Amino acid sequence: MISLSGVVAQFTELVLAVLLAPLLTGWVNQCRAWLQNKSAPPLLQPYRMLAKLFQKEVVLAHNASPLFRAAPYLIFGCLCTAAAIVPTLGTDLPLNAAADAIALVGLLALARLFTALAGMDVGTAFGSLGARREMLVGFLAEPALLMVLFTASLISNSTSLATIAETLAHKEFVIHPSLAFAGIAFTMVSLAENARIPVDNPATHLELTMIHEAMVLEYSGRHLAMIEWAVSLKLFVYSCIGLVLFLPFGIAGGGDWLGLVLALPALLAKLAAGGALLALIEMLSAKMRIFRAPEFLGTAFLLAVLAVLVHVLLER
Q: How does DSSP assign 151-180, residue by residue?
């Protein structure tokens, strides 16, 4: 039965994800600039950029298909749905019965598919190059992400993210060595999936290195704004997945109104710490050649498989 607290938590989580995603991107950019001893951009700079892009006129290529026009909204919708699946404030969510970790990976893959198709739609060399590289990264990252989620699923005996969070946060405290390997693998996958260093550089426009930026060069105006917003939302979703799997403490249980209120500052604190850690990782890393990406993600997959084996052999 759907409870009022679950509906409130579900709606609040979706609104917070949409509104706070650009803020997380701005925080990561600030931390990275501070660590590099540079002048940091304003924390609200992503919001200003989105407002500016929404006011600009849309310029489309003559051979752009309806898919090219619809892709930004489809990508944004997929990531909004993914954000609604991840329990960030409470575990009593109406979508629990219909969506789980496998559906979450499917939504992320669907958003990647629309991005790649839009990049190839107008037939530019950069768009096709970026789409091929994006699908290569996705082909290697998705199995590793699934194995990380399966590790947590074996611990909780469920593929529901809400059940995983409930098991890890509200049951007796248990040390799971498998989660250590899964955490390293998830960090590597998250860097690749969000176009961060060392796999990609979100600030570059060099044709030999860029992946994501190559696919969106033909977009402008509100279409580019939706894509940039979706990029921030994807980083927010991956950050929240990491919090659910490895730091689920502070997430409220079913019917706990006080817990829902207290979960918000806990979420903000964990996101701030995670954003600073991401900036530190990027500062200490160097951009690798695209041909080294399979080795990087292959290592992530092996670590994720090792996490499953450690759980099966040692923790049961």
A: HHHHHHT-S-HHHHHHHHHHS-----HHHH
